[in-house]
Each structure stands twice: as structure tokens, then as C-alpha cells.
Amino acid sequence: METVESKIRDQINVHTLREQFPVLSREVHGKPLVYLDNAATAQRPLKVIEAMDDFYRRYNANVHRGVHQLSVEASEKFEQSRSAVARLLNATSEREIVFTRGTTEAVNLVANSFVRPKLKPGDEILITHMEHHSNIVPWQMLCEQTGAELKVAPINQRGELILEEFESLISDRTRIIGVVHVSNALGTVNPVGEICAMAKNHGVPVLVDGAQATPHEKVDVQALGCDFYCISAHKMYGPTGIGALWAREELLEAMPPWQGGGEMIQRVSFSGTTYNEIPHKFEAGTPNISGAIGFGAAVEFLEEVGIERIADHEMRLLDHATQAMSKVDGLTIIGQAEHKGPVVSFTLDGVHPNDIGTIIDHAGVALRTGHHCAMPVMEFFEVPATARISFAVYNLHSEIDVFLAGLEKARTMLA
Amino acid sequence: MALDKLYQQLVLDHNRAPRNFGSVAGATHSARGRDALCGDDILVELVVEGDRIVRAGFSGEACAITTASASMLTEWLIGRSVSEFEHAFEQFEQVLANPDEPPCPELGDINELSAVSAFPARVRNALLPWRTAVRALSSPEG
């Protein structure tokens, strides 16, 4: 049984852990699945699948509405998941956790509820060149509608933020800073703590896109010093269609609701409506209950395995892949930041990423090709697209060899 | 094996040495075809005299399937009428939509791209040069 060399004593037995992920035992085109598209979405462990299944089988009901037993049980589980997410991020209270459809919706919520009301023509929103489209487009839309200006902080050839230039772009017109914690396209881990400290000096609130961070490292929103933190469950072994916004309680209290409907109200009459308390004020309509329950189970999964052990395993996979790929002729790694998450974006001379994707799929390897929802990053590195491998806790070192063999086959076929 | 059919010799040959690659002097019609998701970006240029396409070429950067499809299409287009192209486009779409579709004699070598039908994610690549040519024909230069 393979247990790979580790710096920490209590290492993960990856083979045993893989048994918790049913999909990993399937074959693709007659080959064992090698799933290296974790930055797009991770696979789900039995714990998550069973938690959602259990809800539908045993206590499916609407939340916060009925006095009957099923509704009570569903509401309890739903709120337990909120507490789990609060624990995950080290929030001061579960009142600071708003369930959303994912990171994208969380960013849109902040853009529309927090930023829009205070935005005047000539005001500025500062983001970075390595943002995912979800942390670009909501701000662009807001700028178009209000006459505000979107400022973009530059990156260097390694794919790192140039901090001095970032700070010089913060002005007395900056109303919010949006920054990605871990870049999905480059793997870069940004110094979010430093950025928040800089922003605080200028009195500017900071929103962090944490979609790629929570699966790989301990996130402590209080230690980071940010104001908003946005995450998606499906990047961290949970279901799709559910995520969360964390915001400091006083900010949420002051923000107006952004969608109206049931659940977000306390009292409705035609002469006026009283809104519910936070976080419910921001959760109009029947929520994604099974999703939230699955999200809670995913947090428990991370806690049980231990985020330090996960990170340790993934960093060794990253080192192994980076070293092996550096020896491949004609291969260029896009994104060589000093501090990286387990993501390797690359191009291979003479072979278009799209063809790599198709050929390697027939070796059972799932990887991502294209612009990774970060077209400005592709433009910066002057590539039409890249291929990308990204690791999760269940990946094996031997899978890197399968990937490399597939890459060699692609080259032999096409070059 | 489906993969070998997709990347068969003819397709690989067109990818390695695309025909009619480069800009077309005196083009009367052109269009840029981009597929941002895949990273394909091509320019199709045509010289149309009356109802006939007398020269055709393409340039840009694209995957093997798009490149081979553009190479084969430009080869086929030269000397054909616009209405012949429109008819062929319909037949090519059929070929790509259904793996059991019999080869279409008019399309000649292009029939070899029928293997793409087994790769639904790649159909868009085979179609990109054709769709771009349609747009080129509907928007003359200058």
C-alpha cells in the first residue's frame, strides 16, 4: 500500500481515502479514471453523497417554516451546516454566513447590496489581473451602470501580483478591492493578509474570492483581516449550486437585502415589509437545502481528514508534477509563483491544449483545457489557451506518471 | 479505436502542413472565427468573382481539428459556387451530427472528419471554419 513520503508524521493513506470516493473506481475509455480537474470541481466523498441522500430519504421538508417534525429536523441540519461553514472560516458567529449559489453569487451580492448604493461616477473598484471572470464581470457591470472605474493591478511574468503597484492603485476614490486568494488559472496564492493590511491603511474594504483556497489551506477570515470572503462548496468536495458569503456582522446588518421574497422577511403588508435578521435577510426563497446539508458534510470531511494533512499531500504532488514537467521538452508552465496552490497550467509546443485534452482523455486522464474563465490571464501570457492539471487529496503520485505518458502520446501523435 | 480515427493520417497531414494557409491577396470577403473557450482564433479570407469562390485561405492559431477542417474546406472551396458551399455545409453538419451517416460523395476527403461525430466536445472545432466562411460570405470587404 502506498503511503508517500511526508514531512508530517501523521500522513494520509491515500488508497484507503480513495475508497470514500465512488467515482474514482470507474473507468474512462477502458482505463482507470485519473481525475486531475479538481480546480474545476472536486469529486464528492460518500459522506457528502449520503448526507444529501439521507435528507431526501428521511426528512425532506422546507426549512424555518413548519412546526412538524420533518421541518424541524431539516431546519436543524440546515443551520448546523451554517455553523460548520462558520467554523471552516473561523467566523465570529454563524450569523455572518450567508448561503449563496456559490462564489459568483456571493460576489454579485456584495456588488449589488454593499457597493452599488455608495458608488458615484469617478469612484474606483480595484481588482487584479489574475481574477476569475466571476470577480471581474460583476464589477464591470456595476461600473457601466454607475460611471465608476475599474482599476486592474498588474502581475509579473511568474504570475504574481506586483504589490507596490497594487498599493499605488489604491486611491481615495477606491470603494472596494476584489482579490482572488488562490488563482484557478495560475495557482498563485496571493498575500491576502498583506493586501488587507494595505487596504485598511486606506480605509478600503476587501472582498476575497476564496473558491480555490478553502479546499487546500486553513482560512481564518479574522486573521486575514478581510471584509468579505466568498466560497463554493463544490471546489471542496461538496455539491454544486451552493456556496457562502462571509461578511462581518456589522457590514451585513447595514446592507440592504438584494433579492426579495419569502424567508428574507419578518412581516409583510402592502403598507411595507420588515426584513428578517441576518443572515436570513439575504436568503430569499426556499434555499438549496440538500446542497447546504452536503456543504456541511464536506466541511466535516475536511475536518476529519485534516486540512494540514491535505495540504501536505497536495504540495508533494505539486512538487513532483512541477519537477517532472520541467523536464519535458517544449513544455512551458504558465504560473510559476513562489507560493502556489496545487495547480499546474501549461502549454506544449506543437500541440494545441484542446488536442492534449482529447488525446489524454483516452488515457483516462481528466484535465481542463481552455481559458479557465480567466481570459485576461491568457492574454497576459499571450497564449490562446492552456491545459491545466489540479490536485485533490485523493490523487496519487502514480497518476502523475499516467498523465506524463498521455502527454507524450499526444506529442507523438501530433508533433 | 475512435481516437486513431479522429487523428488519422489525413487529418494529421492537414494539421502539420495546412493548405491555403496565410493571407489571401485581394480578398473580397473575410471573417474572423474565434472560439474563446477552446482558444481557436482563425481568419478566413476568400476571393469571390460573381457567384464563384476563386481563392480561399485561412490563417491564425487553432487546434488540430479546426486547422485540418479549415485546410480541407479551403481546398474544397476553390472553384465552387456559393450555393454549392451552402448545400455542402448542410451535409457536413449531418455528417458531424450522426456517426452512422453515410459518406457524402460531394464532400470528398472532408468525409474523413466524420470521426469527429464520436467526440461531441470537438464538433464545434470542425464547424468553426465553415461557420466562419458563412460569415465571410455574408460580409464583403470594405
Description:
The complex is a heterodimer of chains A (415) and B (142). Chain A is of the alpha/beta class and 415 residues long. Helix content of chain A is 38%, strand content 17%. Chain A has helices at residues 14-18, 46-58, 69-89, 103-115, 137-146, 163-168, 192-201, 221-224, 249-254, 289-305, 307-326, 353-361, 375-380, 397-414, and strands spanning 27-28, 31-32, 34-35, 97-100, 124-128, 149-153, 174-180, 206-209, 228-232, 243-247, 265-269, 272-275, 331-334, 343-348, 365-366, 368-370, 386-390. In chain A, a hairpin with a 2-residue loop joins strand 11 (265-269) and strand 12. With 142 residues, chain B is an alpha+beta fold. Chain B has one domain: Sufe protein. Chain: A (Alpha-Beta Complex). In chain B, helix 4 runs antiparallel to helix 5. Chain B is globular and about 45 Å long. Chain A binds chain B through residues 352-355, 358-359, 362, 369-371, 375, 378, 383-385, 413-414, and chain B through 1-3, 6-7, 12, 15, 36-41, 61-65, 119, 121-122, 125.
